[in-house]
Specification:
By secondary structure, the protein is an alpha/beta fold. It is built from 13 helices and ten strands. It is about 45% helix and about 15% strand. The two termini are about 20 Å apart.
Length: about 325
């Protein structure tokens, strides 16, 4: 990763980094069938890698500075059991997600599509989802499984994925949609095993003060701030309307060196049997200026946030929509 000092200097000079949106949302819009798949978008690493690269490219065109790998629901054990791969082939497939994202950035920059004078600061974020994503039962929004797992069991589960993403050269690891304070603690501890690696830690939340397992968001932030390797802490895949209250609840304990990272979903509700319910949508663009005023320096979207939404977000926050 580029140095943390360089990142802070860029943010101070050019404003917040714009994250991408929902990778699966965009893939499905271009014909992929993902619902109910235990590997979700990670299956396409094996079957349609070009589709993933093209999706990354679309988000870059829309104005995203940070592209997030298709590894949220990826794991070595998942690849071996659902794809029949050997352990080594599973490892190579997981690492390929970082290479695809890097290739998309490289292609976008070499294409030189924009005449903008704005300096872009591109990062590849290696997604590490919660253990609940592997279970594929919606428990990444409750964290119930952590009650029956030790910190060491959680570290052991995540270790192979973190090792692959770090070895493949991700600029930063995105520990995202983490529902449990115990799992957050395990990830912070695990990060020490990779001393040259930086990460952000982003929690799924149930209301304006609590993460999904009922723990206070303030306690989750304090867990993240134990590590200097954690460059940002925040929330993702919650309703946009919860973000202001969550950040406000932790403002008194936030370290000045800690960045806020914010990328909620559309506000629509997810039903495991019926899919997304199309009511309840909220605009991340309309709310984003408040998040910046609260100190957010990395802003984007999660599920149901398309490249078009990211383009609107960049226009609102930076007055420009794309370009290297």
């Amino acid at each position: 990763m580029k140095s943390l000092a360089d990142l802070k200097q860029h943010i101070n000079s050019y404003g917040p980094l714009i994250l991408d949106g929902g990778l699966a949302t965009d893939l499905e819009a271009h014909g992929a069938t993902l619902q109910g798949d235990p590997l979700w978008s990670a299956r396409l690493l094996h079957t349609q890698p070009q589709a993933i690269k093209e999706s990354h490219y679309r988000f870059l065109q829309s104005g995203a500075d940070v592209v997030t790998t298709a590894t949220y629901q990826a794991s070595l054990s998942g690849f071996t059991s659902h794809l029949g791969l050997s352990a080594e082939d599973a490892r190579e497939l997981l690492m390929s997600a970082v290479h695809l994202a890097r290739d998309a950035v490289r292609t976008f920059v070499s294409d030189g599509l924009s005449t903008m004078s704005e300096k872009r600061y591109f990062l590849v974020a290696g997604s590490i989802g919660p253990y609940g994503a592997f279970l594929c039962n919606g428990s990444e929004y409750t964290g119930d499984y952590a009650n029956n797992m030790s910190l060491e069991e959680l570290r052991s589960w995540h270790r192979p994925q973190v090792e692959c993403v770090a070895a493949a050269g991700a600029d930063v690891i995105a520990f995202e949609t983490i529902p449990s304070i115990k799992e957050g603690e395990a990830l912070v501890e695990l990060l020490r095993e990779f001393p040259d690696t930086k990460a952000w830690l982003s929690f799924s939340c149930k209301d304006g003060k609590h993460i999904s397992d009922g723990s206070l968001f303030t306690d989750a932030v304090q867990i993240a701030q134990r590590s200097k390797q954690v460059i940002a802490v925040g929330v993702n895949c919650c309703a946009p309307g919860l973000v202001e209250s969550l950040l406000d609840s932790a403002k008194s304990i936030k370290d000045p060196d800690t960045q806020w990272v914010v990328y909620p979903n559309s506000g629509e509700e997810w039903d495991r049997k019926q899919g997304w319910k199309t009511s309840g949508r909220q605009s991340i663009t309309d709310l984003s200026q408040t998040w910046l005023e609260q100190g957010a320096t990395m802003v984007g979207g999660c599920c149901r946030i398309s490249p078009a939404h990211i383009s609107e977000l960049r226009q609102a926050l930076k007055g420009k929509s794309s370009g290297p």
